[in-house]
Amino acid sequence: MKSAKDYIEQHKDRFLSELIDLLKIPSISADSAYEKDVIATAEVIKQRLLEAGCDKVEICETPGYPIVYGEKIIDPTLPTVLVYGHYDVQPPDPLDLWDSPPFEPVIKKTELHPDGAIFARGACDDKGQMYMHVKALEYMTKTDQLPCNVKFMIEGEEEVGSESLGWFVTRNQEKLANDVILISDTGMIANDIPSITTGLRGLSYVEVEVTGPNRDLHSGLYGGAVANPINILTKMIASLHDENNHITIPGFYDKVEELSAAERAKMAEAPFDLEAYKDALDIDAVYGEAGYTTNERNSIRPTLDVNGIWGGYTGEGAKTVIASKAYAKISMRLVPNQDWKEITELFKKHFEAIAPAGVRVEVKPHHGGQGYVTPIDFPGYKAAEKAYESTFGKTPIPQRSGGSIPIVSLFEQELGSKTLLMGFGLDSDAIHSPNEHFGIWNYLKGIETIPMFYHYYANNN
After folding, report:
1. What angle do CA 207, 210, 216 make, to 5 degrees?
2. CB-based contact 211:188 (threshold 8 Å)
3. Which of 91, 265, 384, 428 has the lowest tally of Cβ within 10 angstroms?
C-alpha cells in the first residue's frame, strides 16, 4: 500500500502547480472590487474537492460570499471529521514593499525554507494550509485509505469577520454534524519543533472618526484657535496605554484569565531565542506590557493596537491645512473569558468619554469573535499528537497563539464539538504582511501528517 510520502513525491509537481494557480486569484474579501475573483475561487475549490474524491460538493449561498461544502461519507457509523478553512485573503497593501507581485506566485529559497517557499498573498493564510487538506483527502481516497467520514466547510469571509459563516452554521447543524473539527490556519514553533495550537485570542475591531471644524482650514489662520482632529486623535490613542503598556479602558481586564505560575512555567519550556526574534524583525528591543515575557504578551495577554491612521494631506510636497476629520482603525486581541461585544462597548464608551470639547467622536464596530482553548486530553488532540510523532519523529508542544479565528468558539457552541488546530506555517511566513510565503516542505509535510491524524482518530473512536 502506497505511503503518503511516496504518493506526495509522485505528485509533488502537480500539488505545487495547483496551489500556485489558486494563489493567482486575488480573492480579497475586504474589497468589493474583487467580488468576481472571490466567487471564482469558490468555484475552483469546488472542482478540486470533487477531483480529490468528495462524493458531494456544493456552493452554498449566504448573505455574503458563498461557502463551499463537500463531503465523503464512507460509513455513517464511523467518526466524522469536519475540515474548516477559508479561501479569501487579506488585501496585499502596501504593494511597494513586496519583492514580487502578490498575485504572481514565485518560489524562492530562504534561510528557514532551504527547499523553497511560495511567495504570494494567501500562501500560508490560508490557501496553502487549506489546500493541504484537499490533497490529503486525495491521497486517502485514491489509495483507498480513508478511515472515516470527512466534511469540508471552506468560507470566503474569514478575513472580514466570518459573519455569513455564523449565519450558515446555525441553519445547517445537521449537515455539519461531526465528531471533531480540524483547522489548519495557525503555525508551529519551527520545522524541527512541531507544535499544536491549543489557544486562540479573541478579537474586537473598530474604526474611529474624530471630526472638528466643518471643513479643512488654513493652518496659519486657524492653527492654535480650533481643535485639530489629527492632534486630538493621536493624544486620545496615546492615552489608551499607561507607562507600563497596560490598557487604560475601565473594566477591560475584569474578566481576563490569569494563568497560574505553573502554567506560565510550562509555556516557558517552549524554545525561544529572544536575540534571534529581534534580529528577524530588525529591532533592538522588544516592547509590551510590563511583567510578562514576549511569548506571554503575544498569546495569553490582551492587547490594543492601531492598525491604520489617516487624515489631512498626505500627498507630495506641503499643504498647510488643519483637517476636518481624522480616522484610525484599532484592533483588540482578547483572551478567554473576555466577551468581544462587551469589550467593544467598553472601548466605545471610554473613547467617547475622553474626547475633549471642540471635536465629535464616532466609534464604528467592524467585527470580532471570542477566544478559544483546546483541551489537551480529548481524543482529537491525542490523535494529532501521534500524527506529528509519526511524521516529525517528535512529540509536538502545546502552544497558545496570539492570533484569532473568531468562529472557533461558535463551532463548539452551535455544533457541540471540539476544534483541533494543526498549523504548519511559521511565524516568519509574513501572513497579513508583504512577502507572505509558505514553505514547500511545510506544505508537503502537512499533506503527509493530516492522513495520520485520520488514522489515529478513527482507530481510537
Report:
1. 125
2. no
3. 265
Instruction: Cell numbers for 418, please give them.
Output: 471540539
Rounded Cα distance between 150 and 272, Å, is 36
Q: Give burial (CB, 10 Å; 0-12/13-18/19+) of 260.
A: exposed
CA distance 232 to 356: 8
Q: Domain containing 314 — which CATH number?
A: 3.30.70.360
* Nearest CA-CA partner of 409 in 375, 373, 366: 373
φ and ψ of 28, to 5 deg: -90, 105
Local mean pLDDT, 10-residue blocks, the chain (461 residues): 93 98 98 98 98 98 98 97 98 97 98 96 98 98 98 96 93 98 95 94 96 96 96 98 98 92 84 92 96 94 97 95 97 94 98 98 93 92 98 94 86 95 96 97 98 95 66
Decide if 72 contacts 54 (C-beta within 8 A): yes
C-alpha cell at 105: 506566485
Q: Which of 369, 387, 404 is the last residue of a domain?
A: 369
DSSP 3-state of 418: coil
> Which grid cell sits at 220?
496659519
Are residues 277 and 294 in contact, defined by beta-carbon separation less than 8 angstroms? Answer: yes
DSSP 124-158: TTTHHHHHHHHHHHHHHHHTT---SEEEEEEES-G
283 within domain boundaries: no
Q: What are phi and psi for residue 206, nearest 5 degrees? A: -130, 160
Residue 295 covered by a domain: no
Give the integer Cα–Cα distance in Å for 385 and 378: 11
**Phi and psi, residue 115, nearest 5°:** -85, 0
**Which positions ≥6 away from 282 have C-beta within 8 Å?**
none
- 51: nearest Cα among 18, 73, 25: 18
Instruction: Identify the three-state secondary structure at position 43.
Output: helix
Whether the model clears a pTM of 0.85, i.e. scores above it, the answer is no
Shared-domain flag, residues 364 and 337: yes
The letter for the amino acid at 417 is S
Q: Do 191 and 115 belong together in one domain?
A: yes
For residues 63 and 161, give the distance between their C-alpha atoms in angstroms, rounded to a whole number. 13
Q: Say yes or no: 177 and 210 in one domain.
A: no
